[in-house]
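Example with several molecule types.
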Amino acid sequence: MAETAAKGLDPVAILKEAGLAAFVALMLAVPLAGLETVSAPGGLTINTRWDWVAIAVGSVFVGRLLLILWREQGRRRSGPRLDLDIGENLRTAMPVLAAAGIAFAVVLPFLPFADRRVLDIGILVMTYIMLGWGLNIVVGLAGLLDLGYVAFYAVGAYSYALLAIHFDLSFWVCLPLAGALAALFGYLLGFPVLRLRGDYLAIVTLGFGEIIRIILINWYDLTRGPDGISGIPRPTFFGLDFARSPPPDGHTFHTFFGLDFSPLHRIIFLYYLILVLALITNAFTLRIRRLPVGRAWEALREDEIACRSLGINPRNTKLTAFTLGAMFAGFAGSFFATRQGFISPESFTFIESAIIVAIVVLGGMGSQIGVVVATLVLIAGPELIRELQEFRMLAFGGLMVMIMIWRPRGLLAFRDPTVRLHPAPRRRLGFGRRKPAGSGAP
Amino acid sequence: MLSITGVHTFYGSIEALRGVDLEVKAGDIVSLIGANGAGKSTLLMTVCGKPRAARGRIVFDGEDITAKPTHEIIASGIAQSPEGRRIFPRMSVLENLQIGATTADSAYFDRDLERVYDLFPILKERSNQRGGTLSGGEQQMLAIGRALMSRPRLLLLDEPSLGLAPKVVQQIFKTIKEINEEQGVTVFLVEQNAYHALKLAHRAYVMVTGRISLSGTGSDLLANPEVRAAYLEGGH
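Resulting structure tokens for the full complex:
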């Protein structure tokens, strides 16, 4: 026993590995942490901070050592882990967690610490959660890697902006129209390209995302190009504005309800608006997963050939996923436009698509709560750790590395079946007491 | 019920089927045996429209299905348990069966599910388990059960004995017989396990490099010295 243990923990090899990691850290730390530019009277000069480099290298060395030890410990304790019943505990905890999450989201604006900044982050996070849930239909459920999702977000945003400005339509009329237009774009793109698979589909959708952005930049007459569209109407609360002074013959939100004017009212309203939109997206996905079309999406992700042999039409099935995913991006896009009051092609670059895909993949493909957790990590995380200033991105990167080590298949990478037989008692498979075949019927 | 005449199928420029004629009568179990790469699976897949027959005609219940898209062929009453089973590993047994019922009228779902669970009681026990956690034999049962959920009149089985223990193979073939006799489903079976396939078959065909070389009743072929030499002796 002692021999095998010694073999597993060869000190020279461990020191070598940790030393290598420390060397890499040294190479990175010298330019990143060791050198600092400072404004001096004669221009920029360089300050050196060797103590910082030493801290970085030292902590990487120690961290790597701990990681190796932890890894060896885990390897000896349990053999290969089977994920037969993964998430049995999580499964029972999940509804409670979800309810608590929703309750927290609902009361957030009335909590004492909910100032303007917190609410703004809340709105941002909710927007990405909604986009993540929308893309989860396409990537998570149907397994179609769409790298141009932001295109549909852009279509929704511009649809709302143009319709509202040119035709003077209210937000509530434009919202479904924007969704429908985005869905139409999804359908039109999906029709020719959904015969492609995997990487090829990813490249085409990536291209599509860029094409939309470039059209938005160049079609100046319609979109005002890089100048963007400003003065987009704000949403109203059933016709009530959130302005400070009411129109001569009417009310605004605060006069109607007899409140003192506060600019927070609009923010809180926007927060609830996106919360409701996101929850609708979620409810829709949860519902459709139980319907034949939703099941067909998941089956298609698992095995397209088997699906075909069962009479599922792969193209139509994929097309519905793509179109519906695009529709939710369109809804989110029109919300974005009305919140910002200003949109330009700048807001719809590839990085946005990449973030949304990262949210879905990081959350664990197809997991709705995974999307929420991943959004909190990816979007709220960097906002909340602003105090770390220049090390914000370093901490963020470290977090990503940790996720890759501990949860390589996504934060919540398990799938809950949409139906269960005999939901109540989970009988153990007692081999002695198994009922004889055919005695199931009364 | 199913008649295949002069079917040629190509993979690119390789001719996998070189003029196949074959007839499946309603109510029969028809077996097609042959060596690896003879084109057995290709024939089954061609019946389902993927790959498509380059020449020839496939008629099912008086309807020409040669040029129909796969999902319409399946909807017209043919079900396939594909080679290698191809169950959905991350979905539960019950969900696998639900997907099998995609083309069927949902009014029959509960009855059909009960029927499949009667045929394969183990599936009922495992119904909340993920497909990928089943044993090979159970997966094969699931694949057959899934195919039956579409209420087919003709069931195509591609190598149901592949990679299974002899005892399990016997059980599977017993169930195939049950499906045919008690539920009146016509079965077209493609097998390398010639002994079992011929014993079960009302009618059987032997395929060699894309052509039908022999045909007859199952017992005829089982007694045929050529067949014995090529597919049975040594193997059994």
